[in-house]
Amino acid sequence: MELPTPPRKVRLQPTLVLATLSAAFGSAFQYGYNIAVVNTPHKVLKSFYNDTYFERHGTFMDEKLMLLLWSCTVSMFPLGGLLGSLIVGLMVDKCGRKGTLLINNVFAIVPAILMGVSKVAKAFELLIFSRVVVGICAGVSYSALPMYLGELAPKNLRGTLGTMTEVFVIVGIFLAQIFSLQAILGNPTGWPVLLALTGVPAMLQLLSLPFFPESPRYTLIQKRDEDTARQALRKLRGSADVDDEMEEMRVEGEAEKAEGRLSVLNLFTFQPLRWQLISIIVLMAGQQLSGVNAINYYADTIYTFAGVEAAHSQYVTVGAGVVNIVMTVISAFTVEWLGRRRLLLVGYGICGSACLTLTLALLFQSTVPELSYLGVICVFAYIAGHSIGPSPVPSVVRTEIFLQSSRPAAFMVDGAVHWLTNFIVGFVFPSIQEATGAYSFIIFAGICLLTAVYICVVIPETKGKTFVEINRIFAKRNKVEIPEKKEVTDVGPQIPSVPAKETSL
Fold first, then answer.
1. Which residues of 217-255 are buried (b: 16+ CB within 10 A; e: fewer)?
2. Which of 306, 367, 429, 467 has the fewest CB atoms within 10 Å around its CB?
């Protein structure tokens, strides 16, 4: 007999809202802010590099050295993100979800100070080193934050809270674009403050997040502290009646005993999680390889073709940021209504169509000048499409398709794929674009199509389902059997008997 579940009656409570704001603003913001903050003022920063080099050596840098140093400055951030993703699994298991986010602030505050004093110290090396460290911060938070929010949320709000990771990434990008305008901080006197601002959200999180509870799932399932987990749930739900949710977590705890604690190596050989693992790899690789960063890199060239003056292109970029943030917020508030699959499929459909149309516009704009404006429209359409599905929704799905025992290892794989593909696109795309020109966007259209086909065939709709229910759906595809709830509660000691053999592998 099924347990009674009243998910529709669970509403956002002040404690849950404030915990989400504290966690997301202090964590996901770092990713967005630091990925965009060096783009607009790049000429000012390169001038600082050159002046510093001249003071040391009495001559200016040659172009090759400048290109090398600037490439290091940009690429050290995703490298740090990759390092952060590799340590997050250990951190969330040992320190908890909330504890990991709090410790992670060290990786934001220290580089903020170093970047803030780099001009006074006349050391551009501090900037490059700091980009690695703040990248570690972003790598940890990009995995730990959705895990924390997904475990705090009731199942009917899990999609909305899960998308907050991407919402605050976009907020970080948008504020970086605003603050880095030449009229504000993107100038020779303001850039140290611009880079140091990344420490402010970290300080706010250190002051606020300790007042909110640790993940109840982590507390109950991994720490075996039922009283603390119950108190945390009562705070988050604003109600003393949390028995149904406690029972659901106990069911998940019993179900995960069959899996055991999985390492990354175990995860790759564990049959009951085979399709979940493939799915997060496809989702995260598709998110980056579908061309979102390439569109951003190429946007200025498209704007120039459309007749936008170089001095005004920064404002067009801010306009694209507005589209980005509006569509991501729309996604956050419709994901529980429209579902995860639909938003992903619609998003990839828009992105693929925009890439194909952009290819045609770039190929024929020399003969039909008006097509240059179509190129700008395609950029905005692509950003809108990616913001409604491929950017925010994977953060939700990757939390939902794994149980507590496998989630840390899965997020390490997921994070590593995210940052590695991010780095590959940034490193390889300029060469591909130089070799193939406008045809490079056909590659991205193809990846959008392949990712959409995979989602359509393999990934189920997870809206409104418990973690255990989602696990049962994947169990059929993985060709393994999972006991029903009544078997879990009535015959608990016998649960691990069949899958335990798998776990030992």
1. bbbbbbeebeeebbebbbbbbeeeebeebeebbbbbbbb
2. 367
